[in-house]
Task: inverse folding
């Protein structure tokens, strides 16, 4: 099976490459290419079509995205090009070559108002530019027969820019942190997300899937756990004191859903994957991170 992967240098891309199943011929791409990667600019639909036409993959695994939620409010055209026009171009080209598409999407396609986990079949209603462009990307992808959408949220891993790595740094640098406590979702490890992506293209599943680790948390809960488990993993000498604050105490350009928990029950059954609680997944990530940490920053 030949798979064209976008976003290979991103945090999910790293995990997908590391967990590539046996028998998969992977064509990994990034915006700038290099280091064995094919250059592919997702902001250019013609480049997306050309890549599919040149390589005729069985699947395009579109893990690349414009994910700067706040900056998207001032760069809507670029966000739309990457998050909506690129999957549309992939779908168009794959309709000609006969391949399929897995579009990785987000919990931000929902408005967070209902206060209970969102099911895959529910209507989307995004609050901001980022969520709107990802919703448009879903719709474009699903125009292709056989295409899949896999929604997730609060993604983090041992590389890249994410909440977990930022909190580790802040725990190390500060005595006290204020973290939003009135937004609820579920942290999702790139390792478990990558496993779900690979399984999705290997078995017959519903066209829209939800995947996150098990449980629920606020950003405050997540930050506290990062401190506690960071100490246990030897990454921190001590955890900073974390204070709960409200969304209004930390204004941002983009509105965020106050409740974005995804109902993953049907998707887990379809994928045949057992859920891992988010704290257990976090402990695994921090444990894997320990040997790679700069020795000067590791606790003796």
Result:
């Amino acid at each position: 099976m030949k798979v064209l992967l976008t976003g290979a240098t991103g945090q999910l891309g790293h995990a997908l490459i590391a967990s590539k199943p046996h028998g998969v011929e992977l064509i990994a791409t990034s915006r700038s290419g290099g280091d064995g990667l094919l250059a592919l600019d997702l902001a250019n639909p013609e480049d997306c079509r050309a890549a599919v036409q040149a390589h005729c993959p069985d699947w395009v695994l579109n893990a690349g995205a414009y994910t700067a939620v706040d900056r998207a409010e001032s760069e809507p055209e670029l966000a739309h090009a990457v998050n909506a026009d690129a999957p549309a171009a992939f779908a168009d080209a794959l309709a000609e070559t006969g391949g399929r598409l897995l579009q990785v999407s987000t919990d931000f396609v929902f408005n967070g108002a209902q206060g209970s986990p969102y099911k895959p079949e529910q209507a989307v209603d995004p609050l901001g530019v980022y969520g709107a462009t990802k919703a448009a990307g879903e719709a474009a992808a699903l125009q292709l027969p056989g295409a899949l959408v896999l929604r997730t949220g609060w993604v983090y891993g041992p590389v890249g820019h994410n909440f977990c790595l930022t909190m580790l740094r802040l725990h190390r640098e500060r005595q006290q942190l204020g973290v939003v406590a009135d937004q609820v979702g579920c942290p999702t490890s790139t390792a478990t997300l990558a496993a779900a992506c690979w399984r999705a293209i290997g078995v017959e599943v519903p066209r829209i899937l939800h995947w996150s680790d098990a449980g629920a948390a606020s950003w405050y809960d997540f930050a506290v756990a990062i401190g506690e488990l960071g100490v246990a993993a030897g990454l921190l000498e001590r955890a900073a004191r974390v204070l709960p604050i409200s969304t209004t105490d930390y204004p941002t350009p983009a509105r965020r859903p106050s409740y974005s928990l995804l109902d993953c029950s049907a998707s887990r059954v379809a994928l045949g994957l057992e859920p891992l609680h988010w704290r257990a997944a976090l402990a695994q990530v921090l444990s894997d991170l320990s040997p790679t940490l700069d020795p000067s920053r590791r606790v003796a």
In short: Residues 111 and 127 are 6 Å apart (CA to CA). Residues 2-156+189-212+262-275 form a domain with the Rossmann fold fold (CATH 3.40.50.720). The two ends are 45 Å apart (CA to CA).
